[in-house]
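ok so i was messing around last nite and threw this chain in just to see what happens. nothing serious, just curious
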Amino acid sequence: MKKFSKEFDKIAVVGMGYVGFPLSLLLAREYKVIGFDVDNNRIGKMKDGVSPISEVGIDDLLQNEIIRKNITFTFNPDDIKIAKIKIITVGTPYDLKTDYIDYSQLDSAMDILKGRLNAGDIILLKSTVPPGTTNGIVKRKIENFGFNVPSDIGLCFSPERMVEGQAIRDFMTLPKVIGASDIETRSACKDIIGSLGGKLIEVSTIETAEMIKMVDNYSRYVFLGLTNEFALISEELGVDVLELLNSAKDEYPRNSGLMIPGPGVGGSCLNKDPYILKAHMKKHGIALKMVDSATIINRSMPKHVFETVLKLAKERRNISILGVAFKGDTDDTRFTPAYEIYDYFKEKKFNVTISDPFVKDEKIRIDHDIFSASGGANIILVLTDHSEYKSIDLKKLKEIMDKNPLIFDTRGIINRDKATKVGFEYHGLGRL
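result:
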């Protein structure tokens, strides 16, 4: 029987990354949870009460669950055998050059379960995968272990839909999609996933649930390409792109998908998931076209930002870059456009400093303080929408900078009127 008892049964979360770690802590509010990762250094930090990632509210949540003793962290795979529910949250990288979807982490996670599955267990996959993966790779592995689906082992797919920096909020509020192999598995997963909060959406097949995640990120990537193109149009026509987008969406739901433009598309999800779907559908004889158009625009943005600032700089040569992370209030630099933009300015012999309150980098010096990084600079380039940038003391900032300072804001988070009032020349992406 695949019924789950909150009192007696445990949940194991395999993979303590940006998805698995906050998920395990939130589940620990209601259940006994085992957090597993192969990285013993990461596990050691978590045992010591140190979060390996930057997320709003995660430090307090970690401390609370350690005190309550509802969660244990381990790198010993034998420890997860006792868990009735095994949740897999590992990554599925993609190589654009070779069109290769890398299932090695998923394969490794499944291999870890070999000899550690019991009849009646449920495997819940949250990794982003093309439709057919759960009933393909995962199911075949289970059958190779000597079990049948669904009579022995239940299968469920429930995509993660959170964004980094807001993971806890998103896990607790966003709709949860569930596709399962059978009624018992669906019922157990509904209880577990439903404990997080947010609406539950049951779909008829696992493949539908897998495809919903593809739709989430494919459409988001395409919408970003569209919005970035509107920013380029706005610059040419002398229109403020933020006013344009906000006004176009105001009480007009048909434009609700429009987003805010930026200096490029960062993060692992949007830089792989649309291509995973494209590569997968190529095997089915369908050539996806919109992703290519969006890619042309999105990948042009870092160079466009550089070239625009270069024109505005005139005699200014000292630039302070604010923000390295691809997303505000996180330390995640995967596919961040900041490094590409940094390299462009270094190639042109600019004096470049970088600050970010969350990011550490062994190769490039990154200051955590805006003011110590910006002294003597005459250009401020905002690349990340960190919350603290919205309340910068602009008067104090100008006082430590060189004469005739320029702000170029790619995120639209610094108030133009306040900046110009204290003496900055202000320009923004799509808002020249």
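not much to say yet. The domain at 10-204 is CATH 3.40.50.720 (Rossmann fold).
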